[in-house]
Design a protein that fits this description.
about 250 residues, alpha+beta, 3-stranded antiparallel β-sheet, about 15% helix, elongated, mitogen, IL-1_fam, cytokine
Amino acid sequence: QTFKCYYTVNNTSASVAWSSKLPQGLDVEISHHPITLRCVANLIIAMERLNGGKGFALGRDESLLNFLLESAVEVLELESERTEASSRAAFSSKGEYECSVTDSENKCWVLNEGSMELHAMMLQGGSSYHKVHLNLSTYITPVPSETKARPVALGIKGSNLYLSCITSEGTPTLHLEVNSTTTLKSINHESDMVRFLFYKQDTGVDISTLESAHYRNWFISTALQQDNTKMVNMCQSATPNRFTTFTVQRHN
């Protein structure tokens, strides 16, 4: 007859099975309690001794049985720790400040409410009020990184619109999505919410690049003034006729 002993390690269930014959009228039942591996080993050994050492031959070697059981649970514990660490790894919001962005040709970001797109345009005199102001939220990275770039989320001031990078027809593109600071307060590094994060890499005084955290090596960019394309969009680094460096002017 085969018996199974169930045990739990960090909410991960596992079982150990052994074959043995119990004395008539004797039964055993083990509940799902977080018992230690040593208890499991001792229980099986005790069962074998109750049976006079007949049946499960491995039970006669206590050190070998303990070693095998400890190896099995060590694997379970490691896997459970990795799962928990992964679930805890999140970008955490640290602070926020207001800013505006201009490209290398001094074009400003302007919101086209009809198409819900950001456009890069030259603004003259009295039209400067069209310039988009952003609420830039900074984040702490969940794991140490060699890069000095800081994760940020970019929300349009006075609205619940946030910049995001998602794929359209297989190509990463810049979008505006409705969201909230509460939802974006903590972002799991493996979740789809990472689309709202960009790595702000400072390359000079107030000069920065904004790289998608979801699609690495894709940057927020604008087109040359001579081009008809005004839309602010994503491009890969060193893409011809696209600006990927911006002046990020802080307002508070």
